[in-house]
Amino acid sequence: MVDTAKEDTPGGDVHGGGVTGLREPEEDWAHRDRWEPGAHRSVGTGLTEIDGNRAHRARLGISQSPARNGVLLVVKALCFDETLKLETHRPDPEVGEGEVLVSVRLAGICATDLEIAKGYMGFRGVLGHEFVGTVLRGPRRWQGRRVVSEINCVCGRCEMCHRGLSNHCRRRTVIGIDGRDGAFAERIAVPERNLHGVPDALRDEQAVFVEPLAAAFQVIRQSPIEKRMRVSVVGSGRLGLLVAQVLQTTGCDLEVIGRNEMTLNFCERRGIRTTPLSEVRPRADKDVVVECSGSPDGLALAMRLLRPRGRIVLKSTYAGGAAVDLAPVVIHEFDVVGSRCGPFLDAINALACGQVDVESLISRQIPLDRGVEAFAMAADPRYIKILLKVNP
Ligand SMILES: [Zn+2]
Ligand SMILES: [Zn+2]
Prior knowledge:
The chain has 392 residues and is an alpha/beta fold. The chain has helices at 18-22, 54-59, 111-116, 159-162, 204-207, 210-222, 238-248, 261-269, 296-305, 327-331, 344-352, 371-378, and strands spanning 40-42, 48-51, 71-81, 83-91, 99-109, 125-126, 130-137, 146-149, 152-153, 173-174, 187-191, 195-197, 230-234, 253-258, 273-276, 286-291, 306-314, 335-338, 362-367, 385-389. The protein has 2 domains: 66-209 and 360-389, Quinone Oxidoreductase, Chain A, domain 1, CATH 3.90.180; 212-342, NAD(P)-binding Rossmann-like Domain (Rossmann fold). Strands 5, 7, 8, 11, 12, 19 and 20 form a 7-stranded mixed β-sheet that branches. It has a 6-stranded parallel β-sheet with strand order 15-14-13-16-17-18, sandwiched between helices. Mean pLDDT is 85; it is low at 1-65. Bound molecules: zinc ion (2 copies).
C-alpha cells in the first residue's frame, strides 16, 4: 500500500539522503511530525516561523534546515530566477563556519543589480550587495552591532589571497552577484572577516553607501591623483557622482561630463565643474579619465579626452558588451586600468568626516515588499539612488 502521507512525514526522504543524513543533531524533528500548510505565524521579533519538517524543507529546495528550536524560519527576499520577484517564504540563510547572521536594515540598488536582473551575469538567487545591518548571530563581539560587509567572500588560501589580492581570490563568491545570496532579504549570512563596524555617528542612510563609495576610492588607490592633474569623470550617474566626490578630495582639476541635468546640478552645488555631454569638445589634454557611464560611447569619448600616455580608469562592469575601437590605446599609448571593489575603511572615514555627501543622492526609500517596483525606479533616470527598507 502506498503511504500517501509519506511526503509530509519526517520519514519522507525527498533528497534520498536518508533520515540521519538530513537530521541535525541539536534538533528533534521526530517531535514535529506534522506540517500544516499555511501554518505560518509571526513571532515577536518580526521573524516569520513555520511549523516545519523535512518534507517542507525539501519543497523549499533545501536539505539542511536553518531551523532554530525546531522551527523553520523563512525570510522575505527579492530574488532573480529568470524574472525578478519577491519570495515571501525563502529559507533563512544557512550560516556557515566563520559566518555571522545579519539582519538587513537598509540596502541600495545599483547598476550591477539592474544588469543582473536582466540576466546578464547568469546569477540566480537573492540580489543585493550594498547594505547596512545588525548582527543577529555570531561571535559575542559582533552581536547587536551595526555593520557593513565587504562583498567578496574569499578562501584565504589561494595564491591571490596569499599575495594580498583576496578580492581576486580564485575561489571567491560575491554577495548577491556570484554564487552567494545577497542582501535584498530580511537576513543574510556573511563571513565574519568581511564585517566592518559602523560608527555611531553614521546614519544607516550613509552607511548603506560604504560599498559603492569604497569602489570609488579604489580609483585613487590604483591611480594616485595629484593636485596639478586634469581629470575627467565620464558619466554622472550613481557611481560617477561618488567617484567625482572622491576625486574632489585630491584637489585635482576636475570635471564631470554627463547628460543628466539633475545630477550635473548636484556636482555644481558641490563645487565640481561640469560639462553637459552635448557641449564637450575633447582636446586630448586630460591626464586621467574615469569612465563611469557604462556605455561604449563613454569609453570612446574617454579616449578622445585623454592626452597621449594618459590613463583611462574603467569603473563600469558592463561596458564590454559592444565592440570598441582600441586603436587609440596603441597609438597614444594609453594606460587602461580596470577598477572594481575598494577599501571600506577609506569610505567609512570619508563619510564620518563629511567629505562625501551621499544622502542627497537618495531619491526614494522603498519597502522590500515593493522591491520589484523599486528596481523599475532605479532604472529610471529621474531618480538617482533607490534604497530598500528591509528591517528599519
Ligand atoms: Zn553595487
Ligand atoms: Zn583565495
